[in-house]
Amino acid sequence: MKKFALTGGIACGKSLASEFLKELGVEILDADDIVHEIIPDPAERRRIAAEVFSDPIKRRELESRIHPLVRSRIHAWLEEARPEAATLRVAVIPLLYETGWEKDFDFVGCIVSSRELQIARMMESRSYSKQEAVSRIEAQMPAEEKAARADFVIENDGSKDNLRRQLAAFAHELRGNSLRRGQYGIIHNMKDLKEAYKTIEADHFAPKMEISFIDGANRQTFHYEKVTWNIGGEEKGLRYGENPGQEAALYKLVNGNLVLGDVEMLQPGRYLASVPELLQSGKHPGKTNVTDTDNALNILRYLMEKPCAVIVKHNNPCGVATGSTLAEAYFRANKADRLAAFGGAIALNRECDIETAKLIIENYAEVVVAPDFKEGVMDLFAAKKNLRVFRIKNMDRLTDFVAKHVVDFKSLIDGGIVAQTSFSANARKSEDMMPAYCNRKITDKATGAVTFEEHKIKRLPTAKEYEDLVFGWLVEAGVTSNSVLYVKDGATVGIGTGEQDRVGVAEIARDKAYTKHADWIAWEKYQKPYNDLRLVFGEEDGAKKQAEIMEQTRAEKGGIPGCAMVSDAFFPFRDGAEVGIREGITSIVQPGGAIRDWDVIDCCNDAGVAMVFTGQRSFRH
Predict the structure, then answer these.
(1) Could you tell me if 192 and 285 lie in one domain?
(2) Are 574 and 599 in contact (CB under 8 A)?
């Protein structure tokens, strides 16, 4: 059973906090209540307190007799709780750190108040003089030190409602903490959890692996070898998997071939993300660093004609942009979603130069990958101790991978495997896209006669619109479904990912465009994030600035007017397309093939919006 404690200085509000925690279903045992049982007479307690607080020797003598009794009672109470019980038990111990008892507990909350409030409360509720109140405070460990050592801090300088909200969060954290488990057992507190992120998991995966496809006498086998890097004089593989506690290994394909029907898999030896050259290890690379890098390259392989930057987070692009220079491309990709780009993986399709590197180090990134790095760039990156820098020289041949396939494996929870050939976007230029067209089937209810009504798009995209439609469709190949994108001038404006319904993801992409647009305005004006303006400039002035920015954002419709709208699957109804049309998009690309394609075509014609079909769905899960 995990053990939780709440501590804090005198008159910080521990008693009130205890009452609120009880309302939240938390069982409480207060060390002060145990002392009251040991010394039941209030007058006697006051007499003893007055005597010992002016004499440190007497205070230590009293504590040596009282504290063991209190400690024993608390431990017995905590041990009474059944491991399977859902109710939380929290011991309230004012002198937790002073006595060194914090080692007995898995998670500690600390309630703090300003010194002025502590004094005022003692003078009001306990009739202490100011001098008496100060002496009581100074007899305890400073509040700042207690707070620094605690796992959770509760500030009690505000209203009771504010205190209630913080205690609800504290109780929620306790319940979550009681369930946290690592690979080798329970993670006991937040300090342990933080250590878990720094841990390099033991790697028990074999150095070699084979996967065979057998059809009678025909055996086709892939041969793999585990990838490691020399870090600090040791050969090390991946730090850990998706999360701390998950072992992981990276393997490169060294031999073998597979032909499925007319599709031949990629030949061995043409390495990209599976064998990155680690120029700067930063934090030891983990599984997500590799998979984010891989998806960035998956997008970049279609976009090699111009300098391009892709920023990926959680295996989805935050921002993708082209530019006349690499620095311009990175600047625009970061601008597309400056918030999500924090901690992302940055992939560049040209040699990284000083100008681009200076822009990159203004922010926090997990990974930078490029075909090479100009002189002086690595000196700049060295200042970012946690940054991993990968060089992949084969990136200059990324276009060779455009139409190549690999086998995608997905493991099921029962150990089964789903295997599929990987996706490749077929519509890679404007000529590959078809003007939207369909024949609507109409059945006469009275006679059953069937007729067909032709619906076709009236306006074709301009050359500039086609550029964005192609760009957006190729970026779409790396976005989790359902997805909708808004793109303009070779840069993403809003990316909606992983939503279950089509109209919903169109709205998410729109809302993200507005949010990122407002944040960029705030950054340009004040060099501060939009969400921080009230903290930086005060509630009234900050709120005024936010209102002005949001008014500008709404007037500019989040930068969406003139965008191309991209959908990875057909619009089943016109409502999804209408989300973008209301914001001012001028063109749409989608696979087509819905029963109600005619309705979406009519919707676009009514708005003067161009629409093309690719004839290929681009789902990614």
Answers:
(1) no
(2) yes
Helix (H, G, I), strand (E, B) or coil at 70: helix
Phi first, then psi: give them for residue 86, nearest 5 degrees.
-85, -20
Q: Is residue 289 part of a domain?
A: yes
CATH number at residue 24: 3.40.50.300
Residue 306's Cα: distance from chain center in Å? Answer: 30
Whether residues 254 and 190 share a domain: the answer is: no
Same domain for 227 and 175:
no
Q: Which residues contact 413 (CB under 8 A, 6 or more apart)?
A: none
Structure tokens given for 462: 């301009």
The CATH number that applies at residue 489 is 3.40.140.20
How far apart, in Å, are the Cα atoms of 418 and each of 189, 407, 413, 415, 478?
38, 10, 11, 10, 20
Model's pTM, two decimal places? 0.68
Q: Which helix (H) or strand (E) holds 314?
A: none
**Cβ–Cβ < 8 Å for 508, 499:** yes
In angstroms, the CA 71 to CA 428 distance is: 72
Let me know: does 61 contact 1? Beta carbons within 8 Å: no
The CB density around residue 55, as the number of other CB atoms within 10 Å, is: 11
Same domain, 301 and 276: yes
Q: Is 256 exposed, middle or buried (0-12, 13-18, 19+ CB in 10 A)?
A: middle
408 within domain boundaries: no
Question: Which residues have a Cβ under 8 Å from the Cβ of 102 and sit 6 or more positions away?
Answer: 5, 7, 96, 108, 149
**Looking at 67-81, 172-186, 279-293, 530-544, which range is the least confident one?**
172-186
E strand or H helix that includes residue 321? strand 316-322
414 inside domain: no
Helix, strand, coil % in the chain, rounded to nearest 5: 40, 25, 35
- pLDDT tens-digit series, residues 42-54: 888 878 877 776 6
Q: Is residue 421 part of a domain?
A: no
Tell me, yes or no, whether 451 and 559 share the same domain. yes
Encode pLDDT of 44-98 as tens digits.
Answer: 887 887 777 667 788 788 888 899 999 999 989 988 875 545 568 999 999 999 8
Give per-residue pLDDT as tens, 188-205: 444 555 555 555 556 678
Domain count within the chain: 3
192 and 215 in a single domain? The answer is no
* Residues 455 and 310 reside in one and the same domain: no
How far CA 277 is from CA of 290, 390, 552, 569, in Å, comes to 12, 5, 45, 37
- Judgement on whether residues 236 and 190 belong to the same structural domain of the protein: no
What is the structure's pLDDT at 86?
53
Range among 178-192, 200-214, 227-241, 592-606 rated most confident: 592-606
Residue span of the structural domain in which 43 resides:
4-196
Lowest-pLDDT range, 82-96, 211-225, 253-267? 253-267
